[in-house]
C-alpha cells in the first residue's frame, strides 16, 4: 500500500510540474512534402472526383504521403485508434471524394478548436488525390 501511495504522489507531482497545454490537431508537426512528379499533373482547378482512383502508382505515392501526414491521427494503414475518423469506412466514389475534398482542403474545427488543419496550399492536388487513392485501396465496407 505504501508503494502505491508513493506512486500516486510522484505522478501527481509530475503532472503539476508539466505545463497545462491543450492538445491540438497536428500539434507542432510540420506537413511533409509528397513527391508527385511521376503522376499526371492535374492543373490548377480542383477535380471533383479522384482522377487517380485505382492507379497503382498513385496508391504507392499516396501511401507514403498518408504515412507522413495523416497516420499520426488516422492510424497506420488507415486503421484509426480512435483519435480521428477511421477512413477505411469512407465511402468510395463521388460521395466519399466530396467529403474527402472538403475536409482536406478546408480542414475542420469544432467549438473553435482545430480538429484537422486545412491542407489546401500545403499539399498539392496531386498529393491529396494520391492519398485518397491509397485510402480507397484500404476500404472496408
Automatic annotation (TrEMBL):
Residues spanning the signal sequence: 1-27
Keyword set, alphabetical order: Electron transport, Heme, Iron, Metal-binding, Signal, Transport
Stretches of the chain forming a coiled coil according to its record: none
Top-level taxon in the UniProt lineage: Bacteria
A Pfam family assignment: Cytochrome_CBB3
Keyword NAD: no
Location of the Cytochrome c domain: 57-139
Transmembrane segments: none
Iron found in the keyword field: yes
Protein name listed in UniProt: Cytochrome c-550 PedF
Amino acid at each position: 500500500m505504501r508503494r502505491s501511495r508513493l506512486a500516486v504522489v510522484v505522478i501527481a507531482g509530475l503532472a503539476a510540474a508539466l505545463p497545462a497545454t491543450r492538445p491540438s490537431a497536428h500539434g507542432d508537426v510540420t506537413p511533409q512534402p509528397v513527391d508527385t512528379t511521376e503522376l499526371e499533373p492535374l492543373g490548377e482547378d480542383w477535380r471533383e472526383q479522384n482522377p487517380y482512383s485505382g492507379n497503382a502508382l498513385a496508391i504507392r505515392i499516396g501511401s507514403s504521403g498518408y504515412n507522413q501526414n495523416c497516420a499520426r491521427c488516422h492510424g497506420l494503414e488507415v486503421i484509426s485508434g480512435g483519435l480521428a475518423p477511421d477512413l477505411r469506412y469512407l465511402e468510395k466514389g463521388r460521395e466519399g471524394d466530396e467529403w474527402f475534398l472538403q475536409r482536406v482542403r478546408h480542414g475542420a474545427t469544432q467549438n473553435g478548436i482545430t480538429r484537422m488543419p486545412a491542407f489546401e496550399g500545403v499539399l498539392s492536388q496531386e498529393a491529396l488525390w494520391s492519398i485518397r487513392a491509397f485510402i480507397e485501396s484500404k476500404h472496408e465496407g
